[in-house]
Amino acid sequence: MSKQVEKIKELIAKREQARLGGGEKAIEKQHARGKYTARERIEMLVDEGSFEEYDMFKLHRCHNFGMEKKQFLGDGVVAGSATIDGRLVYVYAQDFTVNGGSLSETMAQKICKVMDMAMTMGAPVICMNDSGGARIQEGICALAGYGEIFERNILASGVIPQISGIFGPCAGGAVYSPALTDFICMMENTSYMFLTGPKVVKTVTGEDIDAEHLGGASVHASKSGVTHFTAKTEEEAMQIIRTLLSYIPSNNTEEAPRVECTDPIDRKEDLLNEIIPDDPNQAYDMYKVIGAITDNGEFFEVQPKFAKNIITGFARFNGQSVGIVANQPSAYAGVLDVNASRKGARFVRFCDAFNIPIVSLVDVPGFLPGTGQEYNAVIQHGAQLLFAYGEATVPKITITLRKSYGGSHIVMGCKQLRADLNFAWPTSEIAVMGASGAVAVLCGKEAKLKKEAGEDVKAFLAEKEDEYTEKFANPYQAAQYGYIDDVIEPRNTRFRICRGLAQLATKRQSLPAKKHGCMPM
Description:
The chain is of the alpha/beta class. It has 20 helices and 17 strands. The chain folds into 3 domains: 3-247, 2-enoyl-CoA Hydratase, Chain A, domain 1; 270-433 and 474-506, 2-enoyl-CoA Hydratase, Chain A, domain 1 (Alpha-Beta Complex); 435-472, no CATH class. Helices cover 39% and strands 17% of the residues. The protein starts with a helix and ends in an 18-residue tail after the last helix. Belongs to the AccD/PCCB family. One of its GO terms (cellular component) is acetyl-CoA carboxylase complex.
């Protein structure tokens, strides 16, 4: 046997050793927890045979606390490039079978390498978290590693899409990397994110709580809004990531992928001509509107369990990827509040950063009143949504379906925030406030006098409300002043959006020269 053949055999053996991570027993334990290994996750996510691994043979250099005896090839992270649906991506997956996936200086170097390459090549980066946190034996070097990763997350923000999958524990400082990425998908029941764990919480505050209720997927999906998606299985999580990538571009200089459209752009939906109830206080389901106007009724929702009074997600019109922001009348009457404003603002800014047009479907009676909202800075959070719409330079089309009152009218993509096309249904009410509230302010004194005189106050107020509605609570006054470009028949909404997007395809708009805006935070 020649020396070359021997060296090749040695290489093959080392590769096999590296692929075992922490060893067969550790892999069995991982499977017993109902979890896949880092390599299995990558293979599930990317196109078959496309993964090219980097730094497979890298080892840590720590000799504290017996760590020199705990060296594994690759040092707990699998990193490299691959393709998803033929598009280049960079990916890394923490390997829990190696020292609990703890972050070392070496692991951080491997992660930073693929992040740097993703930036250089203009390709998305996908991280799969399954780690016990910093490798304590390495002390400050492990913390420095986190800092290096966070800096790259920040520099990559708005340049390339960053997607995080949480497949196990993610605690302490480790949470900040996924928090800095654009989208997070958490596994139900097997993943959690928090800064301080249940034991520390118990010691410091006396509160007795388990990991699931402190930072599980359901908590972050519905209460905090930290995660954008949840999945019951790891296979489902991979499909979510693949679907998400199909709607977004590889970087901020490209357009989102366009697909062939088999749905006629002039398709009319008679359902829309009947969907708005006669009673202005009666709810309807905005999802039915979205399903009626998008290509083949498809809609990929972002943060479906958080702030349900506003809907955000991706769809296509004539094959073109679009971000949809819509008020939901069937959840808190569609009012804006702290969480809805946060959710909407972040989504609008992502779409703007990555050249994705924004379609807004408006039915909003105002902002939620009360001390709870005021004390939690609804003014500031509402201003975030306002800022996001006003700053966005991508094509913006706004459709007002019914209510659009007061400050919430301004916030939801009005003409003054440089929306390109503003359409209204004939059922829309664009005004400072609703008829009953306006009449109470305008005619309160007169109504009081009539009551004292024994006259029919209800009839008087009803008459004034009808008068106000006819004069102000309609789309025509706004159209008269050019704030609405056209009042359209609801069933033609899809066609007007498709044609509008085609018209706006060559839009070029810039902001005043500055380092960056100071968004109210």
